[in-house]
Amino acid sequence: MIIKTRVAIIGAGPAGLILSRYLALHNIDTVVIENRSREYVQSRVRAGILETQLVALLDEIGIGERLHKEGFEHKGIYLQIPGNRHHINFNDLVGQSVWAYGQTEIQRDLHTASDAAGQQIYYEVSDVNLGEINSTRPIVNFTDSEGNKQTIECEAIAGCDGFWGVSRQAIPDVEVDCFEKVYPFSWLGIMANVKPSVDELVYAWHPKGFALNSMRSEKVTRLYLQVDNGDQLSNWSDDRCWDELSERLALDGWDLERGPITEKSILAMRSFVSNKMQYGRLFLAGDAAHTVPPTGAKGLNLAANDVRLLGETLVELLTKNNQAFADDYSRKALEKVWGATRFSWWFTSMMHTNFDPFDAQLQLAQINHVMNSKYAAADLAEKYVGVR
Q1: What is the residue range of 125's domain?
Q2: How confident is the model at residue 45 (pLDDT cuts 50, 70, 90)?
């Protein structure tokens, strides 16, 4: 079966569905395909901190109402070393804030909006391959969930299918211009049905390893622990999780709230950038082109930056035949990608222990500098909230 549309979007996560909504506002029709089920995509627990620019984009495409009602606006974060918890006030330093609102909730809002708009989305597809991407009429072949062979004929393809997707691999010799750093530690993440113990995120350096106290709602807390690569969930009972978090986040006069743990996962930490984000009429966005460690909360926000730029690029290309604008997509996107990658690397390197005594003293000196210098604090604030 032949399906005709203007833009084929591979991936129905936030990047893909935000792009489809953005293009619809500019009267450009799209078809979205996704290799996972709708339920799986909806339930994936991912990022929860949104930059001002992402909040503005969600408002623009008409899905920001629930975020403003149920999300938490955070005017800063806490940096902590043993015995000292210091507030970095973003609002005072750079005049902007961030929002705590889980990616699962954004996905839910996007699904609701897509359903209302009648967006054509194929879930649980397989055998996806791209053809004629260096022409003005590329195609996407796939098998739908009922086993039917389908072909999308379009004018452009947006690869929003994540690090392991097929889109990046369709670019010739893409691996030549890929850069990767694998960090020597992972994150153990837990979700707990307990009210947050603090009003804003706590990033804690500790000799035993980094810890993060975050939140998802008034009744749900999200927490992370630095663990060794190769560690197993079976090593972490609920009691051990809470004991370790309590030790690494300890502060005189303050106690960590405990409650039922509903989810545990271990996340490997890597930085990855493909310097080829386009080829012909194929454009990459989000994790298909880059990933960052979650320390600086850049992953989803960086994907949103791509989507904004790609949306503008496709509008110029498909409504004004502006090929020059499209040819410049990679260069423009990579300016922000490498900036965010640098910040994520710096913040990750400063806060995570490698158990070398000399490095530990350097880290403490750096953290103290950020705590005590308004200029260093402003630099962190600017990068964290996404001032461009």
Answers
A1: 2-48+101-179+271-345
A2: low
